[in-house]
Amino acid sequence: MKLLILDAGHCLSLALAREANRRSDVELIIEPRLALTPERLDEVRPDALVIPPLSRPLTADPASVTAHAEAVMACMAACRSRDVPLTWCVSDQLYEDGFESPIDEHVIPEPRDEGLRRLVAAGDRIRAELPRHLIVRLGPLFALEGGHAWLGELLDTLVAGDDLRAESDVIFCPTSADAVAMALIGMLQQQHCGAEAWGSYHLAGTEPVSAYTFVSMVRTQLATRLEGRGETVALGGVKALSHHHDQPLRRVLNCRRVLNVFGVHQKPWRLEVGRMLDAWCLARDDDPAASKEVDQA
């Protein structure tokens, strides 16, 4: 199976490359930008196109959101002209106001934000005009490296001694980019073998948690590992924000369909964070300049 991936520097693109390198049944062609022409599809002849998500579109620059939506539409038109399946990953933030109960796939987002509405309109057109598509809605992605690598950004900020601020009243399911990459390749392999299970799916980590609790847990686990290594680092703190005073905003995706159709189980975000922190610590061993003052006491 040959996949064409856009936006080479995105954390999900890097995760897909790592996953493909562990397998012998997947070939990846990765484009540097979020741009595609029908002629490029003719050259590569992929079995599917994969577009990584625009992370945190609610706080992104409006021009970036518009550009992403327009690029997705151009990709959809190219795929339609060459009958190439399209997989587009989108942020759970499209469900701007959340829901009290877990959100099923058939619930189409109806945001008030103009930028989010552009992304929803792109999804509507894909569903209407390109039968062979996967729209995969993701919880907040985290990874150690690449664009939108939330966990890497948190670690850099904490180690620099700067404080982090996170909402204590926004509940979601953090999602490992590595877990998404493994799931996407498995899903597309089944489609390539004739599953024909096109449509919208939800993919997120297990255990809903507030942004504040997630960031606090990352800080605690980081401090524990650094102490175990004998390193003294004055980590930045974590401060709680509260924007939804009446009740927490819950943005929790119901992921049963991806399990029932493709057999994809959600990975616990705590285990994924722990694994990535272990990898981050090993990388420090290979980079002496990254090590901080060691407590000699």
From TrEMBL:
Its EC number is 1.1.1.133. Signal peptide: none annotated. Gene3D superfamilies: NAD(P)-binding Rossmann-like Domain, UDP-galactose 4-epimerase, domain 1. It comes from the Bacteria. GO terms for molecular function: dTDP-4-dehydrorhamnose reductase activity. Keywords: Oxidoreductase. It is an enzyme of class 1 (oxidoreductase). The keyword Ribonucleoprotein does not apply. The keyword Mitochondrion does not apply. Residues 66-279 form the RmlD-like substrate binding domain. This is dTDP-4-dehydrorhamnose reductase. It comes from Halomonas stenophila. The lineage of its organism: Bacteria, Pseudomonadati, Pseudomonadota, Gammaproteobacteria, Oceanospirillales.
